[in-house]
Automatic annotation (TrEMBL), chain A:
<comment type="subunit">
    <text>Homodimers and heterodimers.</text>
</comment>
<dbReference type="InterPro" id="IPR053793">
    <property type="entry name" value="PB1-like"/>
</dbReference>
<keyword id="KW-0678">Repressor</keyword>
<feature type="domain" description="PB1">
    <location>
        <begin position="93"/>
        <end position="180"/>
    </location>
</feature>
<dbReference type="InterPro" id="IPR033389">
    <property type="entry name" value="AUX/IAA_dom"/>
</dbReference>
<keyword id="KW-0539">Nucleus</keyword>
<dbReference type="InterPro" id="IPR003311">
    <property type="entry name" value="AUX_IAA"/>
</dbReference>
<dbReference type="Pfam" id="PF02309">
    <property type="entry name" value="AUX_IAA"/>
</dbReference>
<keyword id="KW-0927">Auxin signaling pathway</keyword>
From TrEMBL, chain B:
<dbReference type="InterPro" id="IPR041567">
    <property type="entry name" value="COI1_F-box"/>
</dbReference>
<dbReference type="Pfam" id="PF13516">
    <property type="entry name" value="LRR_6"/>
</dbReference>
<dbReference type="InterPro" id="IPR041101">
    <property type="entry name" value="Transp_inhibit"/>
</dbReference>
<dbReference type="Pfam" id="PF18511">
    <property type="entry name" value="F-box_5"/>
</dbReference>
<dbReference type="InterPro" id="IPR001810">
    <property type="entry name" value="F-box_dom"/>
</dbReference>
<keyword id="KW-0927">Auxin signaling pathway</keyword>
<dbReference type="InterPro" id="IPR006553">
    <property type="entry name" value="Leu-rich_rpt_Cys-con_subtyp"/>
</dbReference>
<protein>
    <submittedName>
        <fullName>Protein AUXIN SIGNALING F-BOX 2</fullName>
    </submittedName>
</protein>
<dbReference type="InterPro" id="IPR001611">
    <property type="entry name" value="Leu-rich_rpt"/>
</dbReference>
Length: 190, 575
């Protein structure tokens, strides 16, 4: 709720004098109806989060009215997805989920905070208390039961470290530290 | 006609196909009613809760094609909660039990499950055509059943649905013996596509005329698909990112040139702008172009493409084309009948992408224009008056000024006069959507002049109940009225209860109607379902008392012959 109050205070309006109060009332009523929005399928959660983050840090925008403008949610989703692909390299602070096989709960990190793979992996090692072993271009990770993988925007699970760091930042949607027999399949340079 | 034997009359009726005409025929006399119902093959039900499957089957036992619509239109904009209703399963179950020879099912805004699709695929031997528009609730597993079991499948057309993509192998579920496909549209699927299965399917479908791909189909696959389907009429491109010097691009160019029957182009869901030129050679044949999802293609490339499209009848585009781009459209596309300009920046960037100038240019340049949907930042009465003069043939006029309550940006007046000019000039207007600053006056004009109006969408408009009353009293053909955030209340709602029997439905959200008003209406009209949708808690509404004076957040009422529906969720209160 605090976010809404701040937005309203810094709001720029173009309405006629005298119509302001009416607008305010209507917008408050509509804005509070957040329960309308159904959860988007999990694939687009990250997209929604990063676009919301964009609006928070940019100059104050008008308070969003539910269902306005009248554009189908399908179309909005596609628009956001395309725009995200477009401006990926500009987006700062997009958190991704990190899971580790066997861990009771997930964590979230912002990969763009790190300068490269070694920093990222070190941070993960500290967070989950494990070690990854050594990375080889052909064979993948050797020397550990744990293998770091990530889901790219096509939905495939990829080995962390294969592509240039900038490309990784753009395509990484979530991280998963695989363990045990499943990991072996990846780590053995199949 | 009564002196002819029934078979002759029936034969005459065969030439009458529109459901409106057939409904009219059935009202002439008992004998015509009887003949008509046994010969009716296509049935259209605009509100699935207006009747039920049993009544449908009793009246039309020989039905082959069924069209059903579920949720109200404002569900498209997240105003209707997810679990409201519109379930297709009971319909499919009833149809399956009755052993009717269903061949075609077209659904819009309904909840479809994998279970329903599986049942559908197994119950009707001659099932040929499935069209799902803005539906939800199913996954690619359901599609796999359809692919596997419908031996004579001709059309699988999925438009803008929310489908859970399990990235399974649904495309490989089409048996090798399936060669009857005419339409395959899976553009709305988010996941990976088995390209090998897709190519083999297309290669063995000589009748395939319409193919719409999803994002996961890259350029080189597109080239291969087009070369084995040069008979393509309607193509939806998925991914379109590639290097114009690459071999795949050259192959694509060659394949496109062979598609001389191509008339409709859409998609470009992920598109690199410079590759559009591959399509220039066939543009002169195009009658339909939908670039409204191509957010990455900028104005200049769009314009270059459109300059080749002299025969275009239908254009859907983003406002990034700009007023200048619309001027190019106006001077190039003289056959244009339908235009939709969608907003490209929904986060309120405030770019003045298209204005009233673009709209005026289009109206001046395209004499055949009859349908328009136009999202813009600003409008003036003068522009609307000019548009009305240039295009008196509008059937559908939908204008959305992005900022609610925005007046004429030159005179600061409400836009009553502008819209008034539209309804006065366009005597065949059937659908109208309003926006901008509007007083009761615009509704006076609508009530007075819009004699053919069937659907009206109102948002943030009007001053008093009089506005709504003008419309209810004046528009004799009104079928669907949907209103949001406007100051209309019980007086307007209750003035003429019998009016709602002539309409399909009324939606009012964030207006001034109260609980007691709605209760009063429900009492007077038992043949209406009066639904209060209140997600905060229906019980709280009752408990708060205030003698029913509290305002109703969302009201949806519709005529029905089967009474209260049994599948309403707890937050829907049917009075």
């Amino acid at each position: 709720m605090d976010e809404f109050i701040n937005l309203k205070e810094t709001e720029l309006r173009l309405g006629l004098p005298g119509t302001e109060n009416v607008c305010e009332e209507k917008e408050t009523v509509s804005c509070c109806n957040n329960s309308n929005k159904r959860a988007l399928p999990s694939g687009s959660e990250n997209e929604t989060e990063s676009s919301t983050r964009k609006t928070e840090t940019s100059p104050p925008r008008k308070a969003q009215i539910v269902g306005w403008p009248p554009v189908r949610s399908y179309r909005i989703k596609n628009n956001i997805q395309t725009k995200k692909n477009e401006t990926d390299h500009e987006v700062q602070g997009s958190y991704v989920k990190v899971s580790m096989d066997g861990a009771p709960y997930l964590r979230k990190i912002d990969p763009s905070c790190y300068k490269g793979y070694s920093e990222l992996l070190k941070a993960l090692e500290v967070m989950f208390k494990f070690s990854v072993g050594e990375y080889f271009e052909r064979e993948g990770y050797k020397g550990s039961d744990f293998v770091p993988t990530y889901e790219d925007k096509d939905g495939d699970w990829m080995l962390v470290g294969d592509v240039p760091w900038e490309m990784f930042l753009c395509t990484c949607k979530r991280l998963r530290i695989m363990k045990g027999s499943e990991a072996k399949g990846l780590g053995c340079g199949v | 006609m009564n002196y002819f034997p029934d078979e002759v009359v029936e034969h005459v009726f065969d030439f009458v196909t529109s459901h409106k005409d057939r409904n009219a025929i059935s009202l002439v006399c008992k004998s015509w009613y009887k003949i008509e119902r046994y010969s009716r093959q296509k049935v259209f039900i605009g509100n699935c809760y207006a009747t039920n499957p049993e009544r449908l089957l009793r009246r039309f036992p020989c039905l082959k094609s069924l069209t059903l619509k579920g949720k109200p239109h404002f569900a498209d904009f997240n105003l209707v909660p997810h679990e409201w209703g519109g379930f297709v399963l009971p319909w499919i179950e009833a149809l399956a039990r009755s052993r009717v020879g269903l061949e075609e099912l077209r659904l819009k805004r309904m909840v479809v499950t994998d279970e329903s699709l599986e049942l559908l695929s197994r119950s009707f031997v001659n099932f040929k055509s499935l069209v799902l528009v803005s539906c939800e609730g199913f996954t690619t597993d359901g599609l796999a059943s359809i692919a596997a079991n419908c031996r004579h499948l001709r059309d699988l057309d999925l438009q803008e649905n929310e489908i859970d993509d399990h990235r399974g192998q649904w495309l490989s579920c089409f048996p090798d013996t399936c060669t009857t496909l005419v339409t395959l549209n899976f553009a709305c699927l988010e996941g990976e596509t088995n390209l090998v299965a897709l190519e083999r399917l297309v290669a063995r479908s000589p009748n395939l005329k319409s193919l719409k791909l999803n994002r996961a189909v890259p350029l080189d696959a597109l080239a291969r698909l087009m070369s084995c389907a040069p008979q393509m009429v309607d193509l939806g491109v998925g991914s379109y990112e590639n290097d114009p010097d690459s071999e795949s691009y050259l192959k694509l160019q060659a394949a496109i040139k062979k598609c001389t029957l191509l008339r409709s182009l859409s998609g470009f869901l992920e598109a690199a702008p410079h590759c559009l030129s591959a399509f220039h050679p066939i543009c002169h044949n195009l009658t339909s172009l939908n670039l409204s999802y191509a957010a990455e293609i900028h104005g200049s490339h769009l314009i270059k493409l459109i300059q080749h499209c002299k025969k275009l009848q239908r254009l859907w585009i983003l406002d990034s084309i700009g007023d200048k781009g619309l001027e190019v459209v106006a001077s190039t596309c003289k056959e244009l009948q339908e235009l939709r300009v969608f907003p490209s920046d929904l986060l309120g960037g405030g770019n003045t992408a298209v204005t009233e100038e673009g709209l005026v240019a289009i109206s001046a340049g395209c004499p055949k224009l009859h349908s328009i949907l136009y999202f813009c930042q600003q409008m003036t009465n003068a522009a609307l008056v000019t548009v009305a003069k240039n295009c008196p043939n509008f059937i559908r006029f939908r204008l959305c000024i992005l900022e609610p309550n925005k007046p004429d940006h030159v005179t600061s007046q409400p836009l009553d006069e502008g819209f008034g000019a539209i309804v006065k000039a366009c005597k065949s207007l059937r659908r109208l959507s309003l926006s901008g600053l509007l007083t009761d006056q615009v509704f006076l004009y609508i009530g007075m002049y819009a004699n053919q109006l069937e659907m009206l969408s109102i948002a943030f408009a009007g001053d008093t109940d009089k506005g709504m009353l003008y419309v209810l009293n004046g528009c004799k053909k009104m079928k669907k009225l949907e209103i949001r955030d406007s100051p209309f209340g019980d007086t307007a709602l209750l003035a003429d209860v019998s009016k709602y029997e002539t309409m399909r439905s009324l939606w009012m959200s964030s207006c001034e109607v109260t609980l007691s008003g709605c209760k009063g209406l429900a009492e007077k009209a038992p043949w209406l379902n009066v639904e209060i949708i209140n997600e905060t808690d229906n019980n709280r509404m009752e408990e708060n008392g205030h003698e029913g004076r509290q305002k109703v957040d969302k009201l949806y009422l519709y005529r029905t012959v089967v009474g209260t529906r049994m599948d309403a969720p707890p937050f829907v209160w049917i009075l």
